[in-house]
Structure formats: C-alpha cells, structure tokens
Amino acid sequence: MKDQLEDDMKKNKKIKGNALQTANKNIQLRSIAIGIGVVLIITGVIGILHNMRTSEDWSVSNEGKLSYDMPEKIDYSITNSNTTENSNILKWITFRSTDGIIQGLMRFPPSKEKVPGIVVLPGAGVTKEDQQGLASDLADMGYATITIDQRNRGAINPEADLELFEKGKEPVEYSMIYDALMAAKVLRDQNEVDPENIAMLGISNGGRFAIIATALDSEIKGVVGISTSGYQTGSIDKSMVDEDVYRFYRSIDPETYIASISPRKVIMFHATNDSTIPYDMAEKTFELASEPKSMYTVNGTTHGYSSFTKEELKKELANILN
To answer: What is the pLDDT of residues 297-321, one digit of tens each?
Structure first.
C-alpha cells in the first residue's frame, strides 16, 4: 500500500526543476504526503463531493493559511424536536453552507438562563446521532451543542481536493471547515444560547477541522481536539515544491494554524496506543500550540471520546466558557 501511495503522490504533484529525479530532494514531500495518505485511509477516507464555488469566496495566503468571508445572515430551519427523559431538548436542523445543505442535531440542557454552546464535529464515519453520548455528557455539564453530519461522513480525498484547488475551485475540506464556522453561527442564533460563549470540539478528522475553524473565527473561545493531530507539513521545503502544492497542503494542516489560536486555549486528549492516529503525531501538534494549552494522556487504545475523561473535560470547558 505504501508503494502505491508513493506512486500516486508522484503522479499528482508538480515538482520544480529536477526534484523528481533527485531522491534527496523529494523524499521530504513524499514522506509528508504518504503520512497524510496513511492517516486518512485508516480513518475511513473515501469519496469526494465536487464543489463549484470559486476562489472569490475564500483565499489562501502564500504561507498556506485559509480565510473566508463569512455571510452576515444564516439560512436554517428546525425540522423536528423532542424532549429526552432527562429533560434535554433535541432539535433537528438543516442549514445552508457553501453549495449544500448540512444536517445537524442540537441538544439543550434544562435551564432558565442562556447557556454556553459547543460545536461538535464527529470523526469520519460517525453521524450526529452516533455522537449523542458525548453531547449528553456536555448537556450534563450545562452546555448546549450542535453536532453536524460531516460532508461525505467525514471522508476526504486530498489528491482530488488539490486538483480542485489548482483549478480555482473550492476543495471539499475547505467546505467542511466552512460548515463548522456556519454551525457556530447557527448555534449563536439560538435563544437558549449565550452567543458570546461558544467553543469548538472535534474528534479525529473533526478535530482537525475544529482547530482550523477556531483559528479562523476569533469569536470562538477555545478548542478541544480528541484523538486528532496535524500532518507535519511544516517540514516541507517550500523551495523544492510547486507553490500551489505547498499552499494547499499547508492549508489543510491544523499545525499551520494552531499557534494563532492563543490567547484562547487549546485542549487535546489522546490515547497512548491510539489505534488510528499515533500518539507522537498528536504530541508534535500539541507542541506547536502556544499557551494556554493542556494535553491529557489517556491509557489504552481508544480512538475517540472516552467517558473516563469526562471530569477533565468538564474542568477545561469551565475554564474556557465560564
């Protein structure tokens, strides 16, 4: 599989000069690309949703930082609601984001006052309903949540996205980041929620989008990344690769953005023997974050949220949102 990934990466990347002919010059980029490919395959990467928005709606700097012009108005509708046995109110919602309609599920704890809100971004293959165990725990802590169904169930294809980027079209991963930003706007618009007290929380691939979205939206109070990491694209030698290739891969790497989240807090949880994303990758991402920051090591192989970390999560969220 590794050999096939190397072959695929060679076919899709524009390398300047004689880089393809010189192993010492291209091994760095290939290692980054292969690392991304392996992580994405393990986390269930499949498919792509083509997007026809143009680069007039977004931009990427020379250093690979994405930015968006956010709309003032949001278009959403609540399609259903009910109350759980523990008096949580559930509301199913749809909202427009870029070229599509995103499905979400909001959960509100019983409260006579406005409560802080958290955008929850599941990992690949996980639905908004699957993530309600975490949302219920957050409601117990006094937080409202909006959990969304990620495009393609969180599946991404960086090679196909690179092709879109080179054509001036919006890569799917950019749309997924935009979805997170729009979900925050929807949550702020709810009567039950304190609009000035919103945080991001993401798991696995969702954690990557959560970190980037928090960096892009200065009104987000902080971010929690569970079982997630960056791609270590910072080690790419910019002078040895095509400019568009460099800008794109840097733009989808949370490590490009994580330091800029400060003075807001970055919190990470990661299992020592995570079965999907190696612990050392998470450590390297965490090292790039500026203070304030906290990282909690979880024993075992769990990939995703563990209720055993509920008290630590509760403490950290209280520091961010209260």
So the answer is: 999 999 999 999 999 999 999 999 9
The amino acid occupying position 149 is: D
Pairing of strands 144-148, 100-108: antiparallel
Q: Quick one: 168 exposed, middle or buried, by C-beta within 10 A (0-12, 13-18, 19+)?
A: exposed
Q: What's the Cα-to-Cα distance from 154 to each of 35, 91, 125, 128, rounded to whole Å?
A: 18, 22, 6, 11
Tell which residue, 67, 240, 203, 35, has the closest CA to residue 122: 203
User: 279: Cβ–Cβ under 8 A, 6 or more apart, which residues?
Assistant: 270, 271, 272, 273, 297
Q: Domains in the chain and their CATH numbers? A: 57-321 (3.40.50.1820)
Torsion of CA 64, 59, 44, 180, to 10 degrees: 120
Q: What is the pTM of this model?
A: 0.85
CA distance 318 to 322: 5
Q: How confident is the model at residue 45 (pLDDT cuts 50, 70, 90)?
A: very low
Residue 27, helix vs strand vs coil: helix
The amino acid present at 87, given as its one-letter code, is S
CB-neighbour burial class of residue 7 (10 A; exposed 0-12, middle 13-18, buried 19+): exposed
DSSP of 127-191? -TTTTHHHHHHHHHTT-EEEEE--GGGG---HHHHHHHHHTTBPPHHHHHHHHHHHHHHHHHTST
